[in-house]
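Figure caption, in words: inputs first, then the predicted bound structure.
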Amino acid sequence: MIKFLIIFYSISLFAETPDWSENARLPEVGHRGNIYELVGDEHKEVIHQGKIHTSSYPVSITGVLLPYEASRRAIEADSKNPIKRWLYKLGQKVLGFTSMDDMYNWVGLSPYNEEDATGVFKIPYPTEDKPDFPMGVTFIERHGAKGLTFGCTACHSTQLFGKTVLGLSNKRTKANDFFLMGQKYAPKVPATIFKLGTGATKGEMKMYRSFQKNLMAIGAVSPLVLGLDTSLAQVALSLSKRNQDEYATHNKKLQKRPRPNALSHTPADSKPGVWWNLKYKTRWLRDGSIVSGNPILTNFLWNEIGRGTDLKDLEKWMKNNSKIIKELTAAVFSIEAPRWTDFFPADSLDLEAAKRGQAHFKTSCVKCHGGYEKAWDLPNAEELTLEEKLKTTKVKYAKKTKVKDVGTDPLRWQGMKHFSEDLNRLAISKWMETKVVPQKGYVPPPLVGVWSRYPYFHNNSAPSLCDVLTKPSERTVIFYQGPADDPETDFDSECVGYPTGRDIPESWYQDKEAKFDTRRKGLSNKGHSRMFLNADGSEKFSPVEKKELIMFLKTL
Ligand code: HEC
Ligand code: HEC
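Bound structure (heme C present):
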């Protein structure tokens, strides 16, 4: 039986190859939630394994591995030994933390949910029992030593009112800053000092030296504000430190004097799109600029360029690990959105208002954001509970993903042109059949689970749905992005998003990184207004109609 299963499994590994080409169209069912068309237990097992890879980074050849035990000793162990003491103080000064847990908190990692979690909150553990470290922490064995790195969920999961949501962009990640910090710390600590101060083993020293070496090949910039990400710049600036050959080989001279690239001084920050939308899309990234290829491979490539990895090693790894790639791909395409009713009682929603909102949505929003069929319109709706009536039964999104310029901040889509050629030139891009074509505008995203992914737009510039539906000249100018702990104080459930103005919790003002000023370059909150304005600039929807529209959006 086991033998049979193994044969079955390895055959079907190559059975359905998804259409990753530029001509890909969504199938009749309207989504690719089961991208390899797997069945039964095999489907479940593949997704289970894939979800583990989302937290436990599977790319074993990754460029930046921190020798775990030695680093822990350097950060945590105060001592009379002068070298150890110096390392400890340096850690406090440069890094600002004195334990690994502090570091994980600082990176903004989310905790694993409890074992009894259900539905979208059931996230498998990489270990037998609930790990004592947060999601994203990954240990990789190399040279007989334990190396630490971070996985996809460092950026692609977040805590919302006490539960971790897989696939929702991390509202508080500092993953990019982690590399900048490494670049500040590592040159100050030569290998000999590291060895004397931490008692690192031979294997750990090998790991530390390659950590130092690969850090030199990384170009990183800090995000403009908490919640945004500078992966575009990290890839562009890292490539500008490498040769322009087809493996972007390392070049020590360029590491010191990189080719100039606009993304060193022009922001192109964005936040990751939610994973549960992948199944509705045929091209990738906020601007739809990745027009072909498996987006998971593209992500490995981006992550590894940003970690200083040798791209020949990466290509070899990809060619030898199709099972892992398939599992991870199947998992991220299968992710489902959290629903309003997973957090709040169904009767906090007004069904009749939502139905009226649906009508407004049909006239003004469907053509870009797709249609959402609701269970309340089913012939047997009368027999359903309120919670069942609120469900979406079908998403009818464009068969081929569109890109539209609606006047939102252009820097992110413009940013792509500063490194698309460097990416397209790579042998690995050709092998992956990934092509980058800079665009003008952004993908109007499917609005499933939209209530949970505030603040809105690619650059987070609208704190709530009320703001999205307000004329740009009257939108919130400055807001704060506090943690989403208490839904009573940390969430505006009527406007759906961050509390603004007088409702901002007092403690949020202390966190300078959380202050969002929409007047800054790259953080503009303009655009996306024509769809709810009449030709004379007056508003199409009354305040009551806007509330109805928001009520409908809450049910998606
Ligand atoms: C450092 C943070 C970070 C990490 C780590 C990271 N991502 Fe992302 N990811 C992003 C950002 C930022 C974007 C969106 C950039 C944009 O479109 O402007 C993104 C976009 C994506 C997209 C495209 C989404 C869409 O709607 O088209 C996919 C798929 C994805 N990531 C998967 C992964 C996987 C799988 C991993 C782990 C192998 C990973 N990411 C690791 C930051 C990250
Ligand atoms: C012409 C196409 C178009 C129309 C019509 C349109 N939108 Fe959008 N919408 C977009 C684009 C493009 C974006 C992404 C903009 C960005 O990220 O900068 C967007 C973003 C959004 C977002 C933010 C999503 C997120 O995850 O951040 C919301 C909410 C939204 N639209 C709601 C609506 C509503 C409600 C309507 C109808 C009143 C509407 N849109 C009509 C194109 C459109």
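The radius of gyration is 24 Å.
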